[in-house]
Design brief:
With 319 residues, the protein is mainly β. The protein has one helix at 239-244; strands spanning 3-5, 30-37, 49-50, 58-66, 81-85, 88-95, 98-105, 109-121, 129-140, 143-162, 168-183, 192-202, 211-218, 221-230, 234-236, 246-249, 256-261, 266-271, 276-280, 288-292, 299-306, 311-318. The chain has two domains: 3-235, no CATH class; 238-318, Sandwich (Immunoglobulin-like). Mean pLDDT is 85; it is low at 1-16 and 235-244.
Length: 319
């Protein structure tokens, strides 16, 4: 049985502002599907915010799962959750004081923080002000380098937000965030400074912002921008049951990748940049599917398997 969260509607009585506390994530995690727009939209300093005229170009999926869902769990002993997406795995803990990150594993970078960075504080509201920073190391393309990571958060307002699919949510809390990571020096003495500016909208009991408007700058140059908007239905499922019903092998893979499921499933494979390189609809999928990956470029890929009871992500390395 597939469970779904219906649109949430929250009321404010009197003049009390909306407050977001640490979310109560289902035991087996939550999968959030977003409408993706490959540009950024304007976010005013006060609501309501209406994005119904935005025309998304694709869907982006992120699954916040218990740490046991990750093959890298042993390297993040203090994390409680792993965020799996086409961009990699990101390791978090939710507690009463904030959402904390312990690092990430992507196609090019592995970062494991001994002391977590608090990304946003809990509770949060339109008056929130927060700054946190840490110093650590990371491995980038096989090279170890020093890194500093800093998160800055400022509340903007709360109000009603309308998504591209026309669904409205009342009393979302809007934050302006800035994350700055400085890596280096490189063997040539240079530093890499990546700054992410975001406007994010939070709703109660969601593990991630329901809207994100993102600009990314690398050493001062804009290198990436996008907007994400929560789709109406968000699903969650029993990861233990779902995970045991899926087998993906061999991993690493050189030529043929086998995917076994208990029933026909929609399959998608994305590369490390999030680009879809393979798709097969549930109606035409076999229970034991063999995918020829011999022509795929070596690197990291992410397999999405949706057989109606939730979505399972698996990372695959192509040799």
């Amino acid at each position: 049985m597939k469970y779904r969260f219906l649109p949430l509607v929250f009321l404010v009585f009197g003049v009390h502002a909306q407050t977001i506390n640490s979310p109560n994530i289902p035991q087996w995690g939550m999968t959030m599907n977003f409408d993706e727009f490959n540009d950024t939209v304007s976010v005013s300093a006060s609501g309501p915010w209406d994005f119904s005229s935005v025309q998304p170009v694709s869907t982006y999926t992120m699954a916040m799962l218990p740490i046991s869902a990750s093959t890298n769990a042993a390297n993040y002993p203090d994390a409680t959750h792993v965020l799996q997406s086409a961009n990699g795995e990101f390791f978090f803990t939710y507690d009463s004081v904030g959402l904390k990150t312990y690092g990430k594993v992507t196609s090019s970078t592995t970062a494991s923080y001994a002391n977590p960075l608090t990304m946003v504080p809990f509770p949060l509201d339109a008056s929130t002000m927060h700054v946190d920073s840490i110093a650590s190391t990371l491995v980038w393309n096989g090279l170890t380098a020093n890194v500093t990571d800093k998160a800055e958060v400022q509340g903007i307002a709360s109000g009603t937000v309308t998504m591209p699919d026309g669904v409205s949510y009342q009393n979302a809390v809007v934050l302006s965030t800035k994350r700055t990571t400085v890596t280096g020096p490189s063997p040539f003495g240079t530093y890499l400074t990546v700054v992410e500016h975001s406007k994010i909208f939070w709703l109660p009991n969601y593990p991630l912002p329901v809207v994100e408007v993102l600009h990314v700058f690398s050493n001062g140059s804009l290198v990436f921008k996008r907007s994400l908007f929560l789709q109406e239905f968000t699903s969650f499922g029993n990861e233990e049951v779902l995970g045991s019903s899926v087998s993906v092998y061999p991993n690493p893979v050189l030529n043929e990748l086998h995917i076994q499921t208990i029933k026909p499933s929609e399959l998608r494979i994305c590369d490390a940049l999030g680009r879809e390189v393979y798709k097969k609809d549930a109606e035409s999928s076999h229970l034991d599917l063999v995918i020829d990956m011999s022509r795929f470029a070596p690197g990291h890929y992410f397999v999405s398997i949706d057989h109606g009871d939730g979505v399972i992500w698996r990372k695959v390395i192509k040799e």
